[in-house]
Amino acid sequence: MLSCFLLWSDVYERKFDRVFEIQSDIAEKIAKALKAELxxxxxxxxxxxxxxxxxxxxxxxxxxxxxxxxxxEGLQKSLEYFQRAIEKDQSFALAYTGIADYFTILGFYDYxxxxxxxxxxxxxxxxxxxxxxxxxxxHVSLAYVRTHxxxxxxxxxxxxxxxxxxxxxxxTAHFWYGGYLAAMGRFEExxxxxxxxxxxxxxxxxINVYFGTVFHSMHRDDLAIEQLQKSLExxxSLYIPHFLLSYAYVEKGMYEEAIxxxxxAIDLSEGRDPVVITTRGxxxxxxxxxEEAKKALSEALELSKQRYVSPWGIALIYVxxxxxxxxFEWLEKAYEEHDHWMYMFKxxxxxxxxxxxxxxxxxxxxxxxD
Length: 370
What we know:
- By secondary structure, the chain is mainly alpha-helical.
- The protein folds into three domains: 2-47, no CATH class; 54-165, Tetratricopeptide repeat domain (Serine Threonine Protein Phosphatase 5, Tetratricopeptide repeat); 239-370, Alpha Horseshoe (Serine Threonine Protein Phosphatase 5, Tetratricopeptide repeat), CATH 1.25.40.
- The chain contains 20 helices and no strands.
- The radius of gyration is 22 Å and the shape is globular.
């Protein structure tokens, strides 16, 4: 403990433009203080610079800051910063992973159709790997595409494991791998990865949010609600925890609370996110209020004429309404469009009423999830 105190007591009086040398020096001193034996590869990794341009690196960090906000405005700003970073240094691989992750989030939150967003994400991740094949962040970006769009489950897991081996301190690697494991029904492993992610980045609201969804998938709704409410303490203005809370309340039969949370999501997102519209429709249907559910369905179908609306979300409203034929019609459409939400097809609790239908089994098999 004394050696660590002395380490953090060091004063670095070098010029700011030598920040990368300072980073390497600190990393080596930490390892020495902890009496850690570093391999030759690990020593080389510490000394490796992602870019010679401090300005490019600063732009990249600014991009990550706005990317983490997960808002429309924040995402657009993040892309601008990543692009400016590349203008400063065309060989800056990390900036390409920023662009890859920008498109994955556009796809995940349905700002773009999956078929438009994820191929662009893959191209940017592969560009990063062309520059540096040992870059963990790029392997994680590629793994995300394999999971959410290509549904190549084995390849996705290999990418995640390789990324974590390359950089076990990258919180997003553990976070997204935890999401993959949950989708596979490997919940205890998923929890372990989420805990590692939170150890590395305890104040990440997004990691805290989606940790709650694992408990929901495990039928541990009280823990899901507790975790999602905890995430709201970090940022009460974020709409994402609210629409996820509504699913947990539905499963507990707490329909008034579920409807209230769905409405909060609508209000906070200013009705701009189709996911919250379809979620509200599902919640009303599950609560037995078919009139309001059908209103939300009509709103989603009308909105789909103007912008992308996930077929998966529309399918869930039909599930809530008990219209199985229409639900499968839209799930088939989601499959054909490679709608990213289909990665949860095996474990999503809203679909449990379909499990005894041969059409469910057929879709499960087509996705190699049987």
